[in-house]
Write a structure and sequence with these properties.
homotetramer; alpha/beta; Rossmann fold; Dihydrodipicolinate Reductase, domain 2; six-stranded parallel beta sheet; globular
């Protein structure tokens, strides 16, 4: 059994990790830490775990965890992981960071978008950007995975094959993204107070959301050249689910089937990617609680654009689920292990 | 592996059965039937099953299912099961009926509340009312389980020990019940049209809901005498979850701990019953997607009443989950088998 | 034109007062105050007022407001109003307090339930409990109205005629109440964080909610003797609306029409009370944004109980609307003035 | 007083017309018709009108209405109005059609997108496309207004000034639109069954929604040349509200203030258009129940694109409110008459 620890277990991502790992047949949760809730029973904080998980939160001690565990999941606010992790730690334990600290190759880009110092830039080269379907081989061999953001996962999976095969115009990409409120986390804020966001809809951080450089970095790698995108996130009055509507101009006159072949080439064997039938488009309800990425697309012949709809559960494929998928890859397990639940509907 | 069939697989209860059984380590779904969607791929109807379940719906044929299967789950509108099931069928296969046809001991009561003929009254005596925690021994030995209704399960589990131990006044019981909209099923109706019930709240079928006689029947058995209740269901603008607030006058001056001991006596070893700490009360979010029944209570000393809050996932412990729990009991499996998922939160 | 001021204009009750008064044909909002948002434009805080209301929030100065205004509405946390108001103030200006400070006749009861000192107990006798339909004559002649709480308004209006006419058993009353989340106000709290209360349901402050003594006080006056109730509030995942399900044992065998006559005697001429047809019960959607109290009831002949469903918009009839209704009464205006909007549906 | 009639009063648009007109100081509702609910009391269908509106629905008789009324509002499914209206009718009464029949100048385009015959193409030239802010002069002088669709109103108001002033590339326009569920109407449909759309999100009718030709028609007029857009509507789990995120490439390097000046030129004096401060973007909660169109925009300098967020209440500015605004214009009333309610929040 893999001995796993979760640092930052009381945020929604940490809690989702706990849920998934608890049901994982080849992993045991051996340590959970929380700054805010140290010494408290986990199931007093999250009563869904009542009767199922008896652990209590500890003070964070990465060094100790490194000695005793096989893998540490970090579900911490940005800027913290880069202080905690170093080569010494990585010699003892594998690390999957669900925050942003190791996602951007370039220290400057990180410090500019996140407005904070990076404390272990020497690890940036070693860290593997853990978009499992695309970086599987690198994930297999790394000690440090930078788990992608939720918007990022959905956006990149939607566009990667099209850029890799040079089918769309690099400067034409617009991603209009929509997320449920759990993406904003558990910290109190007027904008996520029930009566302030329920039954309402807004765009936010327009052209300035921190997932933008992450998406551009990976799409640029796919394209082999710099890609700039327009990215607009929206807050949707629902708990879970994330959907992206991506627009791009096709480089040539391609049919639905031409494009379908390309998606099949990249994702045809991927368990967690479900390419929907023609005319059927993703809906967040069909992926809730699961690690699936659902994909549908259409070609707007009148304008020469392709429109791609992608959808995930932001806390699963967009965070904890993909992290466990990466763990499975790192430890040579069946990639689906612990991740094949049927999405819960209606929920 | 138990060979299972689901008749009426395209309603929400049928779908929840499919979800649970698909993940059950000792059961295989060998047949699914639907009147409305015969010949259609199940995952075209419920796309959450995409990539996980490749079956297509068949025309219902109970005789054929009886020959080939070990157990049939019936998730049909009331009045249908009693036509389909007979002693001949039961000699070949075990049956769990999730509808109302075999829940009431008395044919007259059934025909009066359901306003329809009963077609196999000869089976009423044999049928076991499948409230697992209370009827475990009988369930073990029966061929026909009448799986309880959702309101019923939550209400009876809340009150059974108190009546069994003669702690409350039999004529003082009021159950104020609240259910999410999935309890109303998938059939189209103006009252469950999104814009008609979202952001609103109502009571319905006040003093006339069909779960009333079921609750009274089982509570009367517990009390050893006739019990009449006042039962008021309410429709809550959310997908899943059911909570009952039960009121009764205490027969004598009992403390919180006195009552707690009684609940522990009955439920202390029950995996699916979670008695919450004093001062903590159930919330539907903590049971979503799970087979748990959460219980909390308080004593209103000023009025001499006990107030019991019970809560379940209406589609799981209130329907499909309890049915699978009953299957586990009938086949001598671990009662938790296939039913130990962590509730999904936030969802 | 009545010159009105609102102290505490940035809570939901204050904002609702601003909305209603702004549209009132005989009142002008001359001053708005806020502790938290002093000096800020009101429509930067509540953008719905953009283009309609150009005022900015001032520091609270009740003495100054008393000199310049005809009426002050206080929408402050409990314990504040009793410090601010005194006989001197009341000689200059009429006051409607939407908080709890002057609702309870008895200082001790207040200090016990609210766990705070009362700073102007000498005003308790003068203060009129402003349940408009019941206290109209007293409201007409007072300088100080204690505006009732939301749960209280709905509960008392449901039960008052029955107690006044001695039709129900005083010790049999149970009020199972349900409120939308706006009732919890705008202050940040984990329990009203979107993802914590959306799609969930719970009871809270069972047998200990502060509206209990208020309800008992007024029902006792109606009954002419002490009435103790069991009161259980529930939090419903919706923005607005409040519904109470009240239960009581009938003193004698009365028919639906007998009871109807009684309700008609008390409410037949009340514009804001809508007695629904037999078999029709209130739903919060039909009162949203309005000052209506909708009422329906049924008799459970099997148990001898009456079940009364009452429903209001918690921010209107349950707070700001009733306050304006009281203002209309105090100033001799048409009681409906500014309060006859059609409820917004679907909303 | 203007004598008004509403044909199709039992759909959500008809109901919203009834709500607004009932509160209009210069209009009386003299006739309401419904095919489905003829002879029924309106407030039995929509109980929010209880105590406020005593009319009952009549069988539709446009000829009779034309004789007796000053204006008829048609809130009918497409394809019906074009059968009912003719020059003879228009000689007697003004007509505002809230359906699609007279919105498209070209009969062929209509018949192709709506897949039905047009029965009065001779009126297409006379009909004025009633986007009030843009077509005010024409509305003033017409007998027949084709009231715009909800998506259309929000989209055109967002983009019109930019095209009129030739600031954006005509082929670069993408409109990503999001609507609450009331936009889908009151007819039962699995996709708007509560549990099927609550807590979920989807795109639908991608590149094929019927509002597309309407938007293109009016934007082409603005641009003075053919404009083709990509239009993607999404269904948002909320009752009311519509938001569009529009993307276009700027023709030249323009600053925020340059663009602001242009919007001010067109909308600076428009009561119902609220241009938000820089950095503030529309949210549907701030317009609920009102006729406002809120507008915000930003320039994505990295990509040379402008992103415009527009937002309306789909049933008010997107339907009934704009219709009444047009009535006000047609009858020479203050354009705000009956339309200056404060948006309801939280709701």
């Amino acid at each position: 059994m893999i001995k796993a620890g979760i640092a930052g277990v009381t945020g929604y991502v940490g809690e989702e990790l706990a849920r998934i790992l608890l049901q994982h047949p080849q992993a045991d949760i051996k340590a959970i830490t929380s700054k805010t809730y140290a010494e408290q029973n986990y199931n007093d904080i999250y009563s869904n775990f009542n009767g199922l998980f008896m652990a209590s939160c500890q003070e964070e001690n990465i060094a100790k965890m490194a000695k005793e565990l096989d893998i540490i999941f970090l579900a911490l606010p940005h800027g913290i992981a880069s202080k905690k992790i170093n080569k010494n730690i990585l010699e003892k334990v594998k690390v999957i960071d669900l925050g942003a600290d190791y996602r951007l190759c370039c220290q400057d880009t990180y410090e500019q978008w996140y407005n904070t110092e990076h404390f272990s830039p020497e690890l940036l080269e070693e860290a593997v950007y853990g978009l499992s379907e695309i970086k599987r081989e690198a994930v297999k061999n790394t000690r440090l995975v930078a788990n992608p953001g939720c918007y990022t996962t959905c956006s990149i999976l939607s566009l990667y094959p099209l850029l890799k095969e040079d089918l769309i115009s690099k400067n034409s990409i617009i991603i209009d993204a929509k997320s449920g409120v759990s993406g904003a986390g558990r910290s109190l804020n007027l904008s996520t107070h029930y009566t302030e966001c329920n039954e309402s809809l807004k765009a936010y951080k327009i052209s300035s959301h921190r997932h933008t450089p992450e998406i551009e970095q990976e799409l640029s790698i796919a394209a082999g050249t710099d890609v700039s995108i327009t990215f607009t996130p929206h807050l949707i009055p629902m708990n879970r689910g994330l959907l992206t509507t991506s627009y791009a101009v096709l480089n040539e006159n391609l049919s639905y089937n031409d494009i379908l072949e390309v998606y099949k080439k990249y994702y045809g064997k991927e368990f967690f990617v479900r390419i929907l039938k023609e005319g059927i488009f993703p809906e967040t309800r069909w992926v809730k609680g699961s690690n699936f990425f659902d994909l549908g697309f259409t070609i707007d012949e009148r304008t020469g654009r392709i429109i791609i709809i992608g959808c995930i559960d932001n806390l699963v494929k967009g965070a904890a689920g993909q992290a466990v998928q990466n763990m499975n890859i790192m430890f040579g397990l069946d990639e689906k292990s612990g991740l094949s639940q049927v999405p819960l509907f209606p929920a």
